[in-house]
Amino acid sequence: MSPVLSPTLAFTILAVFGIVWIWFGYWLGRNNRTLADFMLAGRNVGLALATATAMATWVTSNTTMTAPQLTYELGVWGMVGYSLGAVGLILFSPLATRIKALLPEGYTSGDFIRLRYGVTAWRVFLVISFCYALGWLISLGMAGGILVNALSGIEYRVGMTVILIVCVSYTLLGGLRAVIATDFVQTLIILIGVVVVAWMVIDRIGIEPLHTAVLDRRPMLLNLLFPAAIMFLFNNLLFGVGEIFHSNVWWSRAFAFGEGVGAKAYLIAGLMWLPIPIVAGFIALAAPALGITVPSSDMVGPLVAGEIIGAVGGVLVFIVIFSALASSLDSLLAATADLITQDVYRGHINPGASDEKCHRAGKWIIVGLGIFTWIMCYPRITTLAGLLYFTGAFVASAIWPIVFGLYFKRASASGATLGMVLGSATGLAAYFIIGFYVAALVSCAVSLFVMAAVSASQNASFDFKLLAMQTRMK
Amino acid sequence: MTTSIVLISPPLFSVLILTALLLTSLSPFILVALLVRDRSNRKLW
Questions:
Q1: Which residues of B touch A (CB under 8 A)?
Q2: What is the pTM of this model?
Q3: Are A163 and A148 in contact, with CB atoms under 8 Å apart?
Q4: Average pLDDT of the residues in A244-249
Q5: Which of the four pLDDT bands, split at 50, 70 and 90, describes residue A66?
Q6: Chain-chain contact of A282 with B14 (C-beta, under 8 angstroms)
């Protein structure tokens, strides 16, 4: 593939947008005084910014790149299955209200697990959270390098480094406030970019000729009874639910959104996110009609976009992908740094640390996370989808401990701990023995069975009022 | 092993793509409208 824009132009775009995002982060962060300002944007985010940040964080480079990849591999069910990731956002809507009501002064998902289930479950949960968060961070960092290289010819490591530096800088300067505000602008850029490319595909090829070309060259992509694809659909639904239910990215937003905003924001964001992977995936189906040879399926999106829109449009694609990367990387950096600050630093290393001390520590942790991600991304480890779905085994095991723990007083600590451990272990076994498309399914089913069976055999009765009281006492 | 094949028809495929594209096209307008509303109500942050 020949790059769609020159390295000089790509560097100019990276520099201009990088400087704008960093300045924006500085400007928004200038009034951050407290830990809650820095970590949770003051706990009063309005509906527009809340909706946009939920959408933007969920529209990642994995949506703009992996949705086309999965469509190219699994066909129609690939893109529909990916779009069911929206179910996680929609189902999190009532949970966001419950979380804010139960822990009005909470900071992280770890706070809830620690207070609800105790120290052992909390530590297991932290291992799961970090496996997922770091897997996603590395996946995003690698996506940055790969996409910049595919679109502009800039060396993989250089592109990856620049993107990480920009995201770390503005997250460091502005905290969650900067992340949320940049997410709003980035959401608009992503939506406009994806829509423009898709309309150009229709204009250049047409939907029915595209359907005919796929039917001629790769008919399985249009098969509605593609077994692996149907398994993928259900697996992806559970994976998405598991990702959102357990991850501090979404919990920190539930704490940050204003009173009554969380439920509406997650619902609207889910409904607006639903069609995006279908549009992004549709772009991949243009490859057969355009006669493009796809050397590696994770490159199909940029290849089609480059072929369809050429040099001028290449700038648009580049900006969209940079925005998609940044909107998720910044959220993940901020939320993971929060988890390390609150649950590792204050929870394990320095239990008496004041908010001021945690505020300072949080900034160093963001820098450290950026450096760690850079080191891990330096070699390109595996294909993007492979790395992403590896974590499905972990996250799906946390769905039931979270749901039962939020709503049922009989959910027990040992049930939650065993559910997470056995769910993750069997999910991982399924990943290696059967395939990536069943890891979350197996993990979720085993976790549900274990959690329900163990909790039923015990006679736990949790008082939910303790959660709010204990977060205040901390 | 025999694998069954049921292909998505061109009209159904068109409906799926065009509906998704139409909804995605509307999203930026909804977000901007919400932003304007929050700003005028001083509920941005």
A1: 3-8, 10, 13-14, 16-21, 23-25, 27-28, 30-32, 34-35, 37-39, 43-45
A2: 0.92
A3: yes
A4: 94
A5: confident
A6: no
